[in-house]
Prior knowledge:
Layout: E1 10-12, E2 18-20, H1 21-32, H2 42-71, H3 79-109, H4 122-149
Amino acid sequence: xxxxxxxxxxxxxxxxxxxxxxxxxxxxxxxxxxxxxxxxxxxxxxxxxxxxxxxxxxxxxxxxxxxxxxxxxxxxxxxxxxxxxxxxxxxxxxxxxxxxxxxxxxxxxxxxxxxxxxxxxxxxxxxxxxxxxxxxxxxxxxxxxxxxxxxxxxxxxxxxx
Length: 161
């Protein structure tokens, strides 16, 4: 017969006092997990994905912006092209942050997206693509017409003076 004994894990604080690490873990578990089931509390299921997704978005935007400006000379591009590049990078970084937030949220909630009522079907994909096309045409066609007629002029910057 093998007898094992578990010794409590102890750690040191900055003032030299010994702290029972198991009680710290129990306290963290009580704060972060619900008593009725072993899921993470709803507060943390909402805050953590948002914060991590936003952090990933900021980090991806900074890294991509630095990489593009290091690899390519953007000083020769026009202001409109640089603004379009910045908006495109923001869109990609936002999409990445959203994907990370969704993945973390479903992991913390221990449910799939289908449990939330999100199901990707062919008809929903067609509706999504149609909405994107209609939205692009709503802004693109009048802009092109006004530019062609000379009724619209492009200025530097995004805010009219």
